[in-house]
Amino acid sequence: MRNRYAIALTILGTYFLASYFVLHAAIQQQRSMQRAISVSGQQRMYSQRISMFADAIFARPDSGLRHRAQQDLHASIRVFDEAHRALTLGDPIINPSGWPPPSVRDIYFKQPYEVDRQAHDYLSHARALDERARYQTISARDKDLAYLLDAGPGVFLQSLDAVVVAYNREQQDAAAKFELLQLGLLVLGLSTLAAIWFTILTPMAKEIAERTAAMERSASLDPLTNVLNRKAFAERAERLLKPAHNDASVGALLMIDIDRFKSINDTFGHGFGDQTIVRVAEIMRENTREHDLVARFGGDEFAIFVPGFDSDKAIRDFVERICTALGFESMHGIQTHRVSVSIGVARVECGVTDLRELLLAADKALYCAKRSGRARYAFAEESTIDDELNANAALSAAYGI
User: Fold this and answer.
1) Which residues in the chain are classed under CATH 3.30.70.270?
2) Axis-axis angle for helices 202-220, 2-59 (nearest 10)
3) How many Å apart are CA 341 and CA 279, to the nearest integer?
4) 3-31: per-residue pLDDT in tens?
5) Residue 62: partners with Cβ closer than 8 Å, 6 or more residues away
6) Which value, to the nearest 10 degrees, does the dihedral of the CA atoms of residues 374, 376, 379, 381 take?
7) Are 347 and 383 in contact (CB under 8 A)?
8) CATH number for the segment(s) 2-195
9) 303 strand-pairing partners
């Protein structure tokens, strides 16, 4: 059972660990894609800032704003270059390897966009303009300025828009795959649980139930004879005595004791004594019904509870049959020993619910049977005990006691 627990926990642990790494990778991919969208949008914005500050340098050659525009141009060139490198070469924030995705890579490095080439050309013109603006005035015929003002808001901007669109499409595709991945993990998880349930937990639960039932049976049975022990007998007999179980029928409680059992142990040994006890229990089971209660109270003392007889005669016939059946010969080597029992009987009628009183009455009748010669039975009603003993005289003679 421990191995099954270990297998089930190992499978579940492996599943949850694998699910964590798979989902972690998918989430990281989503974060990288979101970062790429943000950086590509930043790249688009700074490309426009470059052309705007270049125009400001030309338009205000003597203004105090020229120096500020020149600083902003230099900073915009740096930020644009960093964003472009991150998007084309990859970085730890976006993705350390395998970047950019194939659809975006085509836009960067293949026609008709070739954004990477355009970006390098754009940066080359911007740097040249930035360098000259430090020591001379920029004229309207400056070729670098003309390029920036033409390409920035035009073809280059359209190419950068295509990059943003491609990244958004990649994110949407990745989100759809992520949803499928979640669904797949859910199905796999449920399938794993179902497999564990049917192949491990269900057999384990069945085994636990069987072991529990076996323990309950063991706790309620006498280990030598496999009939009920005293405690289990009392619990079940009390349930049968409850008013809900009483009807117009009658029953009986029999207390049974093996005659001169001490002599059997002393003469033949305790092993033979145990064999005798086991055989007595077997005969009781053979001569009782399935719903009758048979118990060993301890030592050589037994009890039988038989409900549901329709008359006193039926009870008497049953008691006599049991008494006769429990008179048998047992062999010990070449020696033959005659076994007999004494039985005390207490009738159980409608309305009788006190098991203790019944046991005391049956025990009293058992004492009367033993006192009167053994190998016989006696009923608990004092007014009839003498009659019952006389009626059993033949049994005593048959046993030779």
Assistant:
1) 230-399
2) 150
3) 12
4) 767 777 788 888 888 888 888 877 877 77
5) none
6) -50
7) no
8) 1.20.120
9) 255, 295
- State pLDDT tens for residues 267-301: 889 999 999 999 999 999 999 999 999 999 989 99
Residue in the block written with tokens 């759809």: 176
**Strands annotated E in 293-360:** 293-298, 301-309, 328-332, 335-339, 341-348
How do 341-348 and 377-379 pair as beta strands? parallel
Are 375 and 397 in contact by the 8 Å Cβ rule? The answer is no
215: CB partners within 8 A, 6+ apart: none
β-strand pairing of 250-258 with 335-339: unpaired
Q: Tell whether omega for the bond before 203 is within 30 degrees of 0, i.e. cis.
A: no
Q: Where in the chain is the domain with CATH 1.20.120?
A: 2-195
Q: Which amino acid is at 348?
A: V
Residue 55 to residue 51: CA distance in whole angstroms: 6
CA distances from 38 to 23, 26, 285 (A): 22, 18, 87
Confidence of residue 102 (pLDDT cuts 50, 70, 90): confident
Q: Which CATH class is domain 230-399?
A: alpha beta
> How would you label 7-35 residue by residue, b for 16+ Cβ within 10 Å and e otherwise?
ebeebeeebeeebeeeeeebeebeebbeb
Residue 92, amino acid: P
Residue 276: closest CA among 263, 287, 261: 261
